[in-house]
Amino acid sequence: MANKTKKDLNNERIRLKTIKNIEKYKGASKLLINERIKSLNKEWDAFKLSNLILWGLSFVFILLGFLSFNLWFFFALVISFYSFVSILLNQNLLNFLLRSFDFRTKKEIFEEIIILKYLNGDLTDLNGDDIRILH
C-alpha cells in the first residue's frame, strides 16, 4: 500500500466525517433534515474562506500603505496577484491549510446536501452511482 500524503489523509478524514454526518440523519424527521440542509447552505467552503482571507490581507496592507510607508502597497499588490492567480487556477496554499482544519470544498458540501435531500424524499431518481461520496 502506498504512503498517503497529508492531503490524502485530510481528504479521507473529511470524507469519513461527512459520512458520519449523513448516517446521523438516516431515519430522522424531515424537519431535522431540512434544518441540516439550511445549515449546509450557510457553510463556507475552503476556497471561499481562503479568498476572503487573502483579500482581507490585501485591504489591510493598502490601509497600512496609506497610514505609513509605501512598501505596504507592494505587499498588497503581491497578495492581490496571488489571490487572482489562485482563483484562476482554483488552487492555493491557504486552501490546503484550511482543509487541515476540516473546511470542506463546495463539491463536498453539495454532495452532502444532495444525499440529505434523497434521504428526505425530495429526490426520487437518484441511484447508487450518483452517490460518489460513499465510495
Please provide a written account of the structure.
The chain is mostly helical and 135 residues long. Helix content is 71%, strand content 0%. It has 6 helices and no strands. Helix 3 runs antiparallel to helix 4. The chain is elongated. The model has no long low-confidence stretch (mean pLDDT 85).
List keywords for this structure.
mainly alpha; single chain; 71% helix; elongated; 135 residues
Strand content: under 5%
Low-confidence stretches: none
- How would a crystallographer describe the biggest sheet? none
Distance between the amino and carboxyl termini: 18 Å
Q: Shape, please?
A: elongated
Total of DSSP H or I helical runs spanning 4+ residues: 6
Helical proportion?
over 70%
Q: Output the radius of gyration.
A: 19 Å
Count of DSSP strands: 0
Average pLDDT taken over every residue: 85
H/E topology pattern: HHHHHH
> Helix/strand-derived class?
mainly alpha
Set down the secondary structure blueprint.
Blueprint: H1 6-24, H2 30-42, H3 46-67, H4 71-89, H5 93-100, H6 106-120
Helix pairs in contact: 1-6, 2-6, 3-4, 3-5
